[in-house]
């Protein structure tokens, strides 16, 4: 893509909890799923804050916190219309997986996200709850379009470094 658009910049591979970047180097830290769900937020949010310049923006996308409360612990089964786990104490979700080692994801309640942002000198600019259009179809097995039209399946957080 860099060659196609003649736009060149370094690509650095690393994990969200510990990057090889210096302090205050970035204007934007972004995660589309990635660190946003597979890294412990109590580790990757401070790391994102360390990387950002003052006024820099953190932007990330993941499943909505509400969706995680509706998800059964069975691989390939769609979210239900019933709360299946408590919101209080949300953090680490261990998912059984028949094909490999069990997988781990991290999710927080909105209140816990806001407190974590504030502890790391972020100001929340927006929380965008995403809903599909009426004519949307999907082959994604975890959320039906009907459920996602009523409750957000994904959410985008925008926060700025103070």
In short:
With 162 residues, the chain is α+β, with helices and mostly antiparallel strands. The chain has six helices and six strands. Strand 3 and strand 4 form a beta hairpin.
Features:
162 residues, four-stranded mixed beta sheet, Rossmann fold, alpha+beta, single chain, two-stranded antiparallel ribbon, 6 strands, globular
Structure description:
The protein is of the alpha+beta class and 162 residues long. The chain has one domain (26-161): Rossmann fold. Helix content is 25%, strand content 27%. It is built from six helices and six strands. The chain has helices at 2-5, 35-38, 41-51, 65-70, 110-119, 145-150, and strands at 26-32, 52-63, 92-95, 103-106, 122-130, 154-161. The strands form two sheets. The protein has a four-stranded mixed sheet. A two-stranded antiparallel sheet has the order 3-4. Strand 3 and strand 4 form a beta hairpin. The longest helix has 11 residues, at 41-51. The radius of gyration is 17 Å and the shape is globular. The chain starts with a helix and ends with a strand. The model has no long low-confidence stretch (mean pLDDT 92).
CATH architecture: 3-Layer(aba) Sandwich
CATH class: Alpha Beta
Q: List low-pLDDT spans.
A: none
Tell me the major beta sheet.
4 strands, mixed
Task: Find the structural class using helix and strand composition.
Answer: alpha+beta
Q: What proportion of the residues is helical, as a percent range? A: 25-40%
- Overall shape: globular
- The sequence of SSEs as H and E is HEHHEHEEHEHE
Work out the count of structural domains.
1
CATH superfamily: Vaccinia Virus protein VP39
Rg to the nearest angstrom?
17 Å
If helices are DSSP runs of H or I spanning 4 or more residues, what is the number of helices? Answer: 6
Beta-strand percentage? 25-35%
């Amino acid at each position: 893509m860099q060659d196609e658009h003649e736009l060149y910049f370094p690509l650095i591979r690393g994990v969200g909890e510990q990057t090889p970047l210096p302090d205050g180097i970035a204007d934007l830290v972004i995660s589309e799923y990635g660190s946003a769900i597979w890294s412990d937020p109590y580790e990757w949010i401070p790391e994102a804050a360390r990387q950002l310049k003052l006024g820099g923006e953190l932007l990330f996308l993941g499943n909505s916190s509400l969706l995680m409360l509706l998800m059964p612990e069975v691989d390939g089964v769609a979210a239900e219309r019933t709360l299946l786990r408590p919101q209080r104490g949300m953090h680490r979700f261990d998912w059984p997986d028949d094909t490999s080692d069990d997988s781990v994801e991290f999710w927080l309640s909105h209140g816990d996200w806001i407190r974590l942002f504030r502890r790391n000198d972020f100001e929340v600019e927006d929380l965008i709850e995403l809903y599909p259009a009426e004519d949307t179809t999907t082959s994604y097995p975890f959320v039906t379009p009907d459920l996602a039209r009523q409750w957000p399946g994904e959410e985008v957080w925008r926060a700025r470094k103070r």
